[in-house]
Design a protein that fits this description.
The chain is an alpha/beta fold and about 575 residues long. It has 16 helices and 24 strands. The chain binds flavin-adenine dinucleotide (FAD). InterPro entries: FAD/NAD-bd_sf (IPR036188), HpyO/CreE_NAD-binding (IPR038732), L-asp_N-monooxygenase_NS-form (IPR052189).
């Protein structure tokens, strides 16, 4: 058996770790990494971070690897010291500089490789080898990988761990237009004007930190509160965040279960049993009950009593009303204070913790929701989940508050129908309808798209033969009631369609995969050889992807069928 892994970031590391845990050496593995370093992937290397960027998880929340971050800091003083982290001041409850975390991951990867060697498992790493295509050779039961320099490698099975993918549309064509804030060194220039940012969550915070550090400086006032001072050379610098609902991300708090009850994912047998009772669908309400309400009932009975009779929609509305009724930065300050208390008392804000668990647990069975439930999820639950599980780190929130208090950070609500119009000679017009119903068109010389990693469509996969040979298919979810589907069609929803057998489907982003991340073609045939673990391409069936914890969980499933 010869296995090829595309990408050498955290996901590839989890897959290799799982393979090693099998204790076998009767197979071979080749890893292809386009850069010259393993482990750090995109977010924890200079592709995705500078010194000012931090993780949103702390040392104790990281899935088990070879050494804990704390022990690693002890063994790597000089690297850690360069980020002002020492054995003495290391706090496993605090988030980490992303570049430092990348160094940690990189070394963990090398420990895994060393272990493979000791076990006699042959692993070859092809550095600086960018795979440009994947060909499924069904007739000879092989998969070919083709590199940019046109070398061809043949395997029995392939796992795609190519990770983040930020396509460029206007960047480098329209001056002042950035399709994403990555790599962040492109934002290190002085900006003497208002900068428009689309998005108000973690990606926006990344942009905001780089921009603010390069146009001014943070310090502490006499009460120990962070304040911001602009550079003299850029008096007009200001950041304007634009968000659909005018909400800012919730602040990180103390987690009661640092690994967020990752064992709470519904057992496949339970999923099968429930689906059998519901014409093949898994009801969203069932998952909400099992992975949210039950946890609250056991751990916070008072809160449970308050919400137990509410529908999912009513619960979300209740939680959103508080957010919507309080000005965003006032709420941010209040949540910051609440999070400080939570951390000091080591007491979780439990409903938020449960929501993170629900979001993680929903990933695997979401493909069995009906289209009606998937639409409910997208419309109702996901907006709340997205805000709550962002877990904005304290440090970043302090900077946001300092910028806001200095009058240099604003948030505008742009609703669902806003448009960005790029201007050939530079900049953009932001068109939206404001909260009073007025049409607004604002010009900005600099625009940064910070909506986060988009869920990409199946035809955006950067391996053309997978699409040309129809090895993969566009993900879709069936409606349980054709009459409901028809109302969407009649209402002009372009994502709802009727197939040749008369069944109605909802198109969702990405490709079709099974429970083991194997790709599925248009005829519904599972491809036993190709596994897709790159999250941008499975966003439809995997609506919440949760970072490293996803990598740990998905790799376990993949390895079950890989060998
Ligand atoms: C800015 C940012 C911050 C984040 N912060 C956190 C966090 O704090 N905590 C958390 O849990 N999660 C975080 N995440 C989520 C993140 O997805 C995961 O933590 C993790 O990076 C996923 O690893 P990956 O290997 O799937 O993808 P990536 O990290 O993107 O790594 C993919 C690797 O594959 C290589 N590659 C890609 N294409 C090819 C190709 N065609 N040929 C060869 N090599 C290729 C790349 O060079 C890269 O090394 C963050 C994500 C972003 C974008």
């Amino acid at each position: 058996m010869h296995i090829g892994i595309i990408g050498g970031g955290p996901s590839a590391m989890f897959v290799l770790k799982r393979l090693i845990e099998l204790g076998r050496s009767d197979f071979r593995v080749d890893i292809f990494e386009k850069k010259n370093k393993l482990g750090a992937g995109m977010p924890y290397s200079d592709e995705g971070a500078r010194a000012e960027h931090i993780t949103n998880v702390s040392g104790n929340e990281i899935p088990d690897l070879f050494t804990t971050v704390e022990d690693w800091v002890g063994m790597n003083h000089s690297v850690a010291n360069s980020y002002d982290i020492t054995v003495k001041n290391f706090n496993e409850y605090k988030v980490l500089p992303r570049l430092l975390f990348g160094e940690y991951l990189s070394q963990q990867f090398s420990f895994i490789l060393a272990k493979a060697e000791r076990m006699g498992l042959k692993v070859i790493v092809h550095y600086q080898t960018h795979i440009k295509d994947i060909r499924d050779l069904a007739a000879i039961n092989k998969v070919e990988l083709i590199s940019r320099d046109n070398r061809v490698f043949s395997f029995n099975k392939v796992v795609v761990c190519s990770g983040h993918y930020w396509s460029k549309h206007y960047e480098d064509i329209v001056p002042g237009y950035f399709d994403s804030p990555y790599p962040p060194h492109k934002l290190t220039h002085l900006v003497n004007q208002s900068v428009a940012i689309r998005g108000a969550s973690l990606t926006a915070i990344d942009a905001l930190r780089t921009l603010s550090l390069n146009n001014g400086s943070f310090s502490l006032d006499e009460h120990g509160k962070k304040i911001y001072r602009l550079n003299k050379d850029c008096p007009k610098f200001k950041i304007i965040l634009h968000s659909r609902n005018g909400l800012l991300p919730a602040v990180r708090f103390h987690l009661e279960d640092s690994h967020l009850a990752k064992d709470s994912v519904l057992d496949p047998k339970e999923v099968e049993h429930v689906r059998a009772q519901h014409h093949g669908f898994l009801p969203l309400d069932y998952v909400y009950q099992r992975n949210f309400l039950e946890g609250l009932k056991h751990n916070r009975p008072d809160f449970y009593e308050l919400i137990k009779d509410l529908s999912l929609e009513d619960f979300v509305e209740l939680m959103m009303i508080r957010r919507e009724d309080t000005p965003a930065f006032e709420l941010l300050k209040a949540e910051y204070a609440e999070a400080e208390r939570s951390i000091a008392l080591k007491r979780s804000v439990y409903w938020k913790e449960m929501l993170a668990i629900l979001s993680f647990a929903m990933n695997y069975p979401a493909k069995y929701f009906s289209a009606e439930d998937m639409l409910r999820l997208q419309k109702t639950l996901m907006p709340l989940i997205a805000i709550v599980i962002a877990f904005a780190p304290q440090d970043s929130v302090e900077e946001m508050i300092a910028l806001y208090d200095a009058g240099l950070l604003d948030l505008i609500t742009v609703g669902d129908k806003s448009q960005i119009e790029s201007v050939k000679d530079g900049g953009i017009y932001y068109h939206y309808i404001d909260e009073t119903g007025q049409k607004v068109s604002s010009y900005y010389e600099t625009f940064i798209d910070c909506i986060g990693q988009p869920h990409l469509n199946y035809d955006e996969i950067p391996f053309p033969s997978l699409i040309a040979d129809q090895t993969v298919s566009a993900a879709k979810i069936k409606f349980s009631d054709p009459q409901i589907a028809k109302t969407y069609v009649n209402g002009g929803n372009k994502n709802v369609y009727c197939d040749t057998t008369g069944d109605y489907y909802l198109k969702v982003p990405g490709i079709t995969i099974d429970d083991y991340f194997r790709v599925i073609n248009n005829s519904g045939e599972i491809n036993e050889k190709i596994f897709m673990m790159a999250v941008p391409f499975i966003g439809g069936f995997n609506p919440d992807y949760s970072g490293l914890d996803f990598g740990e969980a998905a790799s376990a499933r993949i390895v079950e069928k890989l060998i």
